Amino acid sequence: MRGYGGLRMTPARAVVCAVIVAAGLGVAAPRAGAQTTAVKAFMTLYGFEDNSPPGTVISHPCIHARAGGAGTYANPITFATDTAELPYCQIVYVPYMQRYFIHEDECSQCDQNWNAGHRYRFDMWAGGDASSRRQPERKALARCESAWTRANSANDPDNPTVEIDPPPNLPVTPAPIFSPPTGCWSGGPFVVANPGKQTSRTGSPVTLHISAHDYAASPSPRYAASGLPGGLSINATTGVISGTPTTRGRTTVAVVVSDPTGSASVSFVWNVRRG
Fold first, then answer.
1. Angle (nearest 5°) at CA 93 between 29 and 74
2. Tell me: the pLDDT tens digits for 219-265?
3. Digit-coded pLDDT (tens) for 136-170
4. How far apart are the first and last CA of the chain?
5. DSSP assignment of 110-127, as one string?
6. Hey, how many other C-beta atoms are within 10 angstroms of the C-beta on 134?
7. Which runs of E-coded beta strand occur in the chain?
């Protein structure tokens, strides 16, 4: 149980289950007549060390005896939330992680966020094992959890979209989120080429294309940049930085490429000299 002192499940909730287990197969079946719903949710992760108590015990096994899963529709990964948000055994799909998850655990922080204002918060199982209680695995697991947490709070308008009652044929990334002792899924559908140090002169036009390869074949990526020299801007659709520098100086430029499944970034120095 994620940060929860005891199992909270009324008899009514015990019979309300969003999926069933096919006899002898351990395969989740969709709810009859269910329609996919998209919600904004604060996404956090937990693993062996920060489970309560430490380990893989879960409060309501649906298709797993203990926390686990592969992220496919047939074998979704355990996640925790308030049962008032979603009933146990509910399957969701997280686009930015390209994985299915199933509600099998409780989360006290999720209870607080829901009770305070009906804000969705989902705590996804990252993995880990007994060695996660010691270094270097303990730190690596915490770092991996932090890397895949999205936004800053349940009230953050930039919280990612999560699909409830998703169809079974969405893209899935098979790699584990955390691989002991120190491996963490790098994710990010993009590989962004770093253009290296740039040197320009005031008054001279500039054109620089930021090249990004999208392995996920997802919707067209968007480009954003900070730290650009005065007079320059980036095209959000094409990734082309253009304009005429107006101010001398040295800046560090950061370019972020993103789409609904994730993001990647590069940083480089741009030096503008007198024209």
1. 35
2. 578 899 999 999 999 999 999 999 999 999 999 999 888 876 567 77
3. 999 999 999 988 888 889 988 888 899 999 999 99
4. 64
5. HHHHHHHH---EEEEEEE
6. 11
7. 20-21, 28-29, 37-40, 42-47, 77-80, 91-94, 99-105, 121-127, 161-164, 178-179, 183-184, 190-192, 198-201, 206-209, 212-214, 222-226, 232-234, 240-243, 249-259, 262-273
Handedness of CA 255, 247, 235, 208 (dihedral sign): negative
Domain ranges of the chain: 11-184, 190-273
Apex CA 15: angle with CA 10 and CA 16, to 5°?
A: 95
Q: How far is CA 171 from the centre of its chain?
A: 14
> Is domain 190-273 in CATH 3.30.70.260, yes or no?
no
